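Human:
Class, as today's exercise, you are to examine the entry below, and be ready to discuss the fold:
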Amino acid sequence: MKQLEINLESLINSSPVVIFLCKSTENWPVELITENIRQFGYGVEDFITGRIKYLDIIYPGDLERVNSEIKKCMEEGCSELTQEYRILKASGEECWVEVKILVRRDEDGCVNHYQGTLCDASQRKKAEESMQKALKKKNELKNIIKSSPVFVFLCKPEEGWPVEFVSENITKLEYTPEDFTSGKIRFEDLIHPEDRERIRAEVAKFSREGYSECT
């Protein structure tokens, strides 16, 4: 049993998930916290001695929201809550974390402790922010193309040049994107019959000569 306890402690301390137990009094004094809190630059003794309380490390700009969410959880009588917010490392650097709180109550049903797990969520938040920025740029580009006189096509190099994508502003020519992507209309159908053979020959020549674009 002793060996099992040692192995479990070692497993927890080598994991990225910090486990803590706080009193539900002002600033959440910490009664227990795992040693892997050091990944944020703190030591266990910083909290156990009371020099630092849990709420002390929450980024000031997020503290009001964190308290508000906890208060709402208490009013609704829920027993657990998941939050995302920033904390301050010992170095002063901001770090996004995901925190899961389990509300503990005494025999009278009064809240006396918050038991929680804390995990660094910085990489995920950065990925989400990058995705949002990319989506924003995509939408901006889409709007620019939509309002421009230039039509964007993506066609297969097959007979008739079947269209896989066409910009929405094709409606200016009284077509819909679905006319093309459904196969009802191919790109070559837009070209005047007298010009089709010449256009085919020019594109074929450019392709043979290894050009990546032609006008």
Summary: The radius of gyration is 30 Å.
